[in-house]
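Take a look at the protein record below and flag anything odd:
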Amino acid sequence: MSTERNTEIDMFRGLGILLVVLGHTTGLPGEVHRYVYSFHMPAFFFLSGYLFQLDRVQRSPGSFINGKFHRLIIPAWCMGAVCGLVFVAKLLLHRITLAAFLGLAWGTAVGFPRADGNFLSTPLWSLFCLFSLETAAACLARFVGKAVVPLLMVTGVAGIAWSARLPFVPFDLDIATSAAFFFAIGHMVRQRDWFDFHERGSLARRVILLCSAAAVWGMLAYRSGDALNMSDSIFGSSPLKLTLDVAAALAGTLMLGHLAVALPDVRLLHWLGTHTLPILGFNYLVNAAVVHALDAAHANYWLLSFVVQAMLLTATAWVIDRMGAMGDLVNGRRRSARPVSMPRV
């Protein structure tokens, strides 16, 4: 794989992180929430599998795992600690007990995926989950080679089927079992060249592919009627709806991929795609602040809230990006790996 960044992949991430912010917006209409949740997190696990370099991982699994620890876990801990400052203040003001504070600190440190068990850092569960998944994939690849892909597929199917029965395991290993399915599909798609993030063919062809994927996704999500929620281990209320949820997640992911390819090079989306971590980490904190401010102004409309949050989170990521070593730490990158600069808008 080339070391040169793929613009379409960055735009895929940029679109995906905006969907995450939209999905977490307080007051979002139920139908909008359901359609966003139908694929926005599976899409990220699909992309991780798509980018998983099996041959490289087999040669040096230890180096791969160490790199992922610095890329995913260190940023999660740093951002969790920053979010925790609000709760330190509450503790000092006796608005929270020490036992409750320590419980939230533990949940933040191990990626507890629900808001009642962390420092308003819930979206970071996906980083812990991805680390667990990629660590497991790397270890398995060392021993079984290419058989790791069907093994992850089987694990994913079992994880989805039994997701509601699995207890929370630190670093979201329980959710990683279901995420393994989308990860394996992503890797399989890359290996068989069923889809790639490059412009091919005419604009008309790209639009037709995009519209076709969107139509299939919309139909499947509508027929399911349930809101897929990986962090709550919800994959349909019946075997049929579970199947429809998984199919809708794959169709929605394909739609997002075709959209990233069909769009012109939007530099802002490209930039957002290289700065997803701080947007993810501070999403809940910014959401709470914006909701409080809009409530005070009697203007808490979900669309306005989403726009304000997206702007504030982008500005936050921009400021963090310019904090030198700390910015590199939060973004999970080596100092030599500088992403694209923020576009002028």
Observations:
- The chain has a mean pLDDT of 94.
